[in-house]
Amino acid sequence: MADKFDVIVIGAGPGGYVAAIRAAQLGLKTACVEKWIGKQGKVVHGGTCLNVGCIPSKALLEASHKFVEAKDEFGDLGIQTGDVQMDITKMMARKDQIVKNLTGGISGLFKANGVTPIDGTGKVIGSQQVEVTDPDGKAATYEADNIVIAAGSVPVEIPPTPLTEGLIVDSTGALEFEEAPKRLGVIGAGVIGLELGSVWNRLGSEVTVLEAMDDFLPMVDKDVAKETQKSLKKQGLDIKLGARVTGSEVKGQEVVVKYSDAKGDQEITFDKLIVCVGRKPYTKGVVGDGVGVDLDERGFIQVDDQCRTNVPGVYAIGDCVRGLMLAHKASEEGIMVADIIAGHKAEMNYDAIPSVIYTFPEVAWVGLTEQDAKAKGIEVKTGAFPYAASGRAMANNATEGMAKIVADAESDRVLGMHIVGQHAGELIAQGVIAMEFGSSAEDLALTCYAHPSLSETVHEAALAVEGHAIHMANRKKRK
């Protein structure tokens, strides 16, 4: 029997490594198990987010956006650039270096906080036992009073488009293209599909997005979704809604995709195909058969509001449990669970978790959409303000977008905030804070915002809830 710990965390992604650090900070003897083998052939921390998800994709999104700005938009500002070229090899190397810096940083944080890293594949074999099989195949058993499962998720594969090396890839493979394919297909118009499609569209690919659903971004407020779709179409993304993929065939270095839509059976040929139809929990083999941890029919570990499983002392967080598959949601759950294990009172507000799509313009939202509220029978009032009327947006040459606030019609409490526009992912924090503190739209309206700033779009949207927007013709009478 190997060492005994107060807490063993399985998985060093944004849920697991945060849980481990927090537990150690609270004085608990903590270990974190990770099996991810990086490009250097060694175990690395950070999970999907840092290695092949949030971080590398944002590095490519930022680089490709700056390329488009320099090539197509700097002239509007009076900046003469000449023939701008993108060095994709250098862009990829920069992306890899950022990943290396951050994953190495987690290892440093483990050392600084006294977390014991254990390399290998973790498996819960008892309510207080974890078996770890190291990269060489050697197994060891560790004891812990508490176990936190943070095993994450993996991309969903679909039968019509089996992955084929270098031609049909998932989101991970799409981060490793050595050049921009001439014709790129993307299956799925969700967050990942739109972000990756945007990257390669900016770098010269003809991008076609095939989405089975008839509605574009159904989880987003309809006004914001409409604005986003219009902008992406103008950029060159061909988004086909109601297009259900039925099959594919690799012909040499091309992929022929078959799909059906309102017009019947269709066929389209690509040089590369990215499959982005969602993610599924990675729970197979993480819990032994005799442990008794309940899973639902989709493979998610069942937990309560504080991430306890049905087995005492065993918790689960992040993508392998219910709720949004977001890194920051996993991190907050990790902090909550560590606090609970240490004997503190802790809970999490699941109604105030922001979501962001890092296209340009960015799309961000928190809380209820206007449509969600009405479906729940909640009477609401809304206020919206366009970026086109913002002095800072004009100065930034970024006038696409809008901010919208959804408030309870009776109490004026902010129920949701929805933004499409430059830096929406930063601005949405105002909505999160407002909801966390139970603010009203009037609270935001009475707040003094810096001028000129993009945040003023939020201020004006709050004013517009009662028809008091200053820099927009109001349709409501002042009160």
From TrEMBL:
GO function terms (MF aspect): dihydrolipoyl dehydrogenase (NADH) activity; flavin adenine dinucleotide binding
This protein's record includes keyword Nucleotide-binding: yes
EC category name: oxidoreductase
GO BP, one annotated term: 2-oxoglutarate metabolic process
The enzyme's E.C. designation: 1.8.1.4
PANTHER family xref list: DIHYDROLIPOYL DEHYDROGENASE (PTHR22912:SF224), DISULFIDE OXIDOREDUCTASE (PTHR22912)
The name this protein goes by in its record: Dihydrolipoyl dehydrogenase
Organism expressing this protein natively: Halomonas organivorans
